[in-house]
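Input (Aminomethyl transferase family protein):
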Amino acid sequence: MATRDAAGLFDQTSFGKLEVSGLEGLQRLAGNDVDRAVGAVVYTQLLNERDGIEADVTVTRLGEDRFRVVTGTAFGVHDVALLRRHGIEVRDVTSAYACYCLWGPKAYRILAKLTGDDLSFGYMKAREISVGYVPVLAQRVTFVGEFGWELYCPAEYGLTLWDSLMAAGSPEGMRPAGYRAIDSMRLEKGYRVWGLDITPETTPLEAGLGFAVRTERKAAMKRPESELACLLLDGERDVALGGEPVRLDGRPVSRVTSGGYGYRVDRSIAYAYLPPDASRVEVGVHGKWIGADVVTGPVYDPAHERIRATPWK
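Output:
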């Protein structure tokens, strides 16, 4: 609720951070087009020869042939090995940088207290700024569906940056928050988690990530027989966490990939791979079958207005 109404401060220092050189190799492995202007942030999957999703990352172009790839906490070693197998030069710099995520409608007001630098750069852009006395790479990216930034600084500045953000944000109602809060909010926005919702066995088209694939690569992909769908369970107290069976017209057809409770929408949410025409299913929770509606698009802020807000105007 603090993140929805004011701001939340999340410590994502554990996320994997990789410094990569070699545009040609990275472009060949990525589904999306990573050959963008310096300062652009690209959301993409790294794909195998069957178009299966081997990694789910953001790629920030820091220079002509210098990129920062950010991946999940547990996936750094996996992704380094993947990139190196494809002849891409990569260096794991996870421990070199702290990362704090400042997300919420008051994020701009909070950060503006600490810097005189221009914060009006757009969504999926990155810029080097100073926050107090701390050098920061600010990336306009979110994993919770609220306005804000990922803020990267050298690890030795981490405590100073955290304390500065807390001092500026606490009077505005900002609260420190954790990964469970992130998981609840990403379910509401339909953001996928690699290893659960998406794997090397699923393609971007099956996962509903076709928007993150460049046109020529998408055209060569096989049309999916099933797609990852969002389910809104009838029972608010019946929460699926993953692995629960899903049946369509009384017939088992799938299992829940991930699920939980969305506190901003007050609904129990789950995801499962289903035929594209499915509209109503049942989910097995706690030994009983719970009805669920199949819905399209994010259940929270479907127009993405909060993410793309311009509070400086």
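The chain has a mean pLDDT of 97.
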